[in-house]
Amino acid sequence: MEKQYEGKAKILYSTENPEVLLTHFKDDATAFNAQKRGTIAEKGKINCQITVALFQWLESKGISTHLIEQSADDQILVKRVKIIPVEVVVRNLAAGSLCRQTGLEEGYKLPFPLVEFYFKNDELGDPLLTRDRLLILAVASEEQLEQLQSLALSINQHLQEFFASCQITLVDFKLEFGIDSQGQILLADEISPDTCRLWDQTEKDPQARVMDKDRFRRDLGQVETAYQQVQKRVLDKLASDTYFFPDNL
Ligand code: UDP
Question: Measuring CA to CA, how many Å separate 249 from each of 51, 56, 244, 245, 246?
Fold first, then answer.
C-alpha cells in the first residue's frame, strides 16, 4: 500500500482498486492549527468506530457517505473522492471561535442552526469564507454550495436527534465532503469527538460536561475517558436500535 496523504489525524493509502482508499486513524492529536500536539491513547480506534457507526446511521437516513467498510479497528475502506477544500461547520449552540469572534456567551442557543464555510488551508489558518469569496475561489459551484448547505442541515438534524438519545448535546461540528467519479457529493472524512463539540447532558458543570477535543485543547484531563464514553453511548444506542441492527431481534 502506498501512502497518498498524511494529515494530522489520519493517513490515506491507495489500494489495489484505484477507486478505493484506505484511511488509517492515528492516535495523534493536534489543536490550534497544530501548535499544540500530543497523543490520546486508543483515539484512532475510538474515532474510527464512532465514525463508522455514525456514517452507517446517516446512510440509513439517506445520506450518502464515502464509507465502504471497516477493515481493522483503526482503518476504513472508502470510495476515492475529490475533497472539496471547505470545512463545513454547523453550530447549534455558541462555542469556540463563534464566541471569540462575536462575543456570544458559550452555550447560547442559536435561533437557527448556523452553517459556515471555512477554507481548508492550514497556511492561511482555515479562514471563514463568505459566499462570494467561495464563488471567487471557485471551490464549488453555486449549486454545489446550496447542496452542501442543505446536506449539512439535514445531517445536523439526524445527528442532533441521535446524540440527544445518548444524552449528549451536539453543540457544533465540522464536516467535509467529496465528489465521486460520477459527480455525486458524498459525506467524507470523519465524525468523532475530534470534530464535534459534545456536552454530557447528565453533567451540569461546564468543564465536567465536555466530552470532546476541548478536553485536550483546554487541558481538562480525562481525554481518553471522555472519548470512550462517547463511543460507549453511541454503540450502545445503535445496538439497542433493532431497526438499525435487525439481527439483534
Ligand atoms: N473543527 C474541526 N476542525 C477544524 C476546525 C474546527 O473539526 O479544523 C470543529 C471543532 O471541533 C468544533 C467545530 O468544528 O466542533 C467548530 O470549531 P470552531 O470554529 O469553534 O473552532 P475552534 O474554536 O476549535 O478553533
Answer: 24, 19, 10, 8, 6
